[in-house]
Amino acid sequence: MNMLKWVIAFFLVLCCYATPSVRGEYIFDDIDTLRGITSLYVYIHALPPNAKKFGFTEEKIRSDLVSKLEAADIQVLSYNSCCETPGAPYLFIGIGMLPDSTCNKWAFTVHIELRQVVNLEREPDLSYHATTWMRGETIFIDDQTPLKEVQHHLYGWIKMFTYDLVSVSYTHLRAHETIY
Question: pTM for the whole thing?
Fold first, then answer.
């Protein structure tokens, strides 16, 4: 574990000195797997211990995301209601952060995943939750108050999710109107 910390620290230092800003995106999506989803649950993964210092709280993130999803006419369910919904779809939100004190930057990961129950083709009776749509990125920020920057990236991915969901599921939803 100690070696892993050194490798991460070396990578962060290298990135800090090699470029003024580093950003890597990853995309895994099959928007057809979103077809038919009209409601979902929002799950915020446990935030890192130092997240509150920067203004990140589960309640703030959840309320912001719920209002954005509802503005696009996507119903947000309670956990129990989600479990009773076909496919039990839920939006997984993950935010990670790692400081680098040597160059005063922070590495943040911001990602969202749509997870839902799927059946294995080779064993149709087996059903599991699986990620069928995912977007995210790793960003390096030298700001000591990164809340707005991270929110900007997270809300951009939420906007992409609502657009993809709307594009395959409904024509009456308002994903591209001025909800952001």
Answer: 0.75
